[in-house]
Amino acid sequence: MTPFISRRSLALGLAATPLVAAAARAELIVSLDRANFQPMPIAIPDLQGEGDLGARVAAVIANDLQRSGVFAPIDKRAFIDKAVSPDVMPQFDSWRAINAQALVTGRVQRDSARMHAEFRLWDVASGEQATGQQYTTDANNWRRVAHLIADAIYSKITGAGGFFDTRVVYVDETGPKQARRKRLALMDQDGANVRYLTEGNELVVTPRFSPTSQEVTYMAFASNGDASVRLLNIETGQREIVGNFPGMTFSPRFSPDGERVVMSLEQSGNANIYTMDLRSRATTRLTDTSAIDTSPSYSPDGSQIVFESDRGGAQQLYIMGSSGGPARRISFGQGRYSTPVWSPKGDYIAFTRQSGNSFGIGVMKPDGSAERILTEGFHNEGPTWAPNGRYLMFFRDQGGAKIFMADVTGRVDVAVPTPSFGSDPAWSPLLG
Amino acid sequence: MKIDWSEPGLPLSAAAHAALLVVSLIGLSSAQPFADAEETLPVEIITSDQFSAMTKGEKTAKEVQPAPKPRIDKVAETEQLKPTQGADPTDVPTPPARAPEISDATSAPPLPPTRPPDPVKPEPKPEPQKTAEPQKPEPPKVDAEIPKPPEKPQPQKLAKAPDPPKELEKPKPQPPQFDKIAQLLEQKKVEEQPKPVKPPAKEKGEPSFSTSAIEKLLVSKEKPQASGSVGAQLQKTASLGTQTGNAPKLSPSMRDALAGLLKDQVQKCFDIPPGLDETKIQQAQVRVVFKEDGSLAERPQVASSSSDPGVRAVAGALQRAIMRCAPYQIPAQFLPTFNEWKDTLFTPPESLG
Fold first, then answer.
1. For chain B: N or C, fewer Cβ within 10 A?
2. B312: which chain A residues are within 8 Å (Cβ-Cβ)?
3. Tens of pLDDT along A350-361?
């Protein structure tokens, strides 16, 4: 026993030594005072493999990384090394020559119904492998594999969690403006693999993903005007009605543990916030005011709820405990604030702000400080967070609603392609 | 030209202008000229201790010692006491030790005179030195590993000739221990090349290689010719000194200037992806070891122990930036102080915004 302990303490001591020595030895200290926000030039040659599968996987990875704003994939035509084997050390000089800072090599293979993929991310400056992984999956999942590789690369470089292997549920809008057909649709976060979840015979709004499962809750309005809160499992297609409530119901949203839904119900001109336990179906009233309280959203630890209310005259954002009680106003800027959504990281609350004729999407800290408008224009609305808390999707009306993605710094603003008009996006958790 | 006094305008005007001109020449000439622009020189006030620290010492030291002491080859016959530093804690330990001996011997008063010898006694341990045969005593500890060295000690520099260089090559590691060896080494350096063949050719008068001659020298009881440095205590290892102790030091203004130069060069390459977590960014420190030419001696190392992925990401970006911008332009004026900036720590900005 004793030798074991001593060996372990020796090992710990050895591990700590270089760090201590590093600090002790440094003679000159250089403190930088700025950094340049530049996407990292990355070379993503086609992965080796049968047919064009390697090229297709590489294209999806490159597209993901480019849209994140963190990377700038280099045009393949600039490559000096056209074919890069994942089994040999790359010729880094030829990648440095085209200013690549990172290089991705890999291989994809199909074995009947299975697919095997592997990749390595190289740090071109040091010539060292930064990360590498392999995946085996169903052959039809090649896009997911590409998203997983993109996530691994993104996480390695930024230190943040990935968000490419996710899906988005949104309201697909077709038909003339006066008689829009609204269907619930599901797509990959990059706009691929669109499929429709409802038929379009009823109006659907405000879909929200469960943070813990592949379930969606949304509002459905039947042709006779009856509103109901629905629950839909997107894997099994199973649907259920959470409840039919007298009067109007708005903006249902899951609690972080996925066991409750918080929403607002309208009664005699007022709207108050309620929670419903999905197992017992018992509802609890959280606010009791003569104002309109709506759009509730839980903090990630489930201890607080942010919501919008006009109790002070105009719509503003308030925070209260998750079991109700006094609310504290957090928004004090110009205009009206609505649709607050708490970031999965807990550090920001996203919102829509209407000021004059302009609608902006912004973020602020939960104490109301550090408010920042990320995008502003004729009509922007309905932010939803990526699972890593760094990106937001929202819809922008430009003669028809389209979905866009922005990052919390406001430096990224890219369209998410959808086959037709789309609104009310809701981001899923990582598919895992 | 006649002056028409019926129309005195012109002459009066001319006279008035002339008067004005004269008055202005006289009056304005006394105006204070602008002071000449003076070139400013950065001046720093340092203490005499700092000054001596900057100028004394050995530049050729091979190894840094935490508490460098001056090298002493021989015990001085008359002790050179430096009473000025009575309060110096380093002096304190010795006096108590002597005191008892002295008191035993005689009365208290003689204390001062007796002191000198005392310091010598304690040292006797290193006796090997006193024997004056620096050659043999050599490296008592290290010898076991390297059997060849014994020959090299060639006490006489005469041996400069052919053989020494060759054999000296191996012993290199031990030179710092003795004067002679050090001298031989230096000679060797001067002679440029260890090629044993050349030296003999040049020096016609030199005796040819003879093992018996070497043996003679080895057995010789002659006192070494080098007088060596003297002091109150023998200090064999002191010659290792410290690389920084005696070397020129970076003054604060030079330090700032160099840090500014490096900062500007690294910042050009410090590209980071948008959206990083800024809360712990200052922890992402990177340590760099430079070569004298401004290139990197090794891959920059992350100095912080944080395992936070955000910190690692910023540190990774900083590492890449430092590697991408290398080598660095470092003006020649900083070369003498290389040891002061060889190890440099880079810290990221407080916020990335």
1. N
2. 159
3. 999 998 888 999
Domains of chain A as residue ranges with CATH:
40-158 (3.40.50.10070), 167-427 (2.120.10.30)
Structural domains in chain B, CATH included, are: 133-222 (no CATH), 252-346 (3.30.1150.10)
Instruction: Indicate whether A273 pLDDT > 50.
Output: yes
Residue of A nearest to B289 (CA): A26
A321 alpha-carbon distance from chain centroid: 25
Which pLDDT value is given to residue B237? 55
Please state the pTM of the whole predicted model: 0.66
Helix (H) or strand (E) holding B272: strand B271-272
Label residues A205-235 b or e (16+ Cβ within 10 Å = b). Answer: bbbbbbbeebbbbbbbbeeeeebbbbbbebe
Cβ A295 vs Cβ A251: under 8 Å: yes
pLDDT tens column, B308-330: 888 888 888 898 889 988 899 99
Q: What CA–CA distance (Å, rounded) separates A72 from B337? A: 41
Contacts of A32 in chain B (CB under 8 A): 263, 266-267, 270, 318, 346-349
Residue pair B339/A27 in contact by the 8 Å Cβ criterion = yes
Query: pLDDT digit string (tens) for A120-134?
Result: 999 998 898 999 999
Q: How far is B248 from chain A (nearest CA, A)?
A: 14
Using the Cα atoms of residue A171, residue A175, residue A176 and residue A182 in order, give the sign of their dihedral: negative
Residues of chain B with Cβ-Cβ distance to A22 below 8 Å are 287, 301, 303, 345
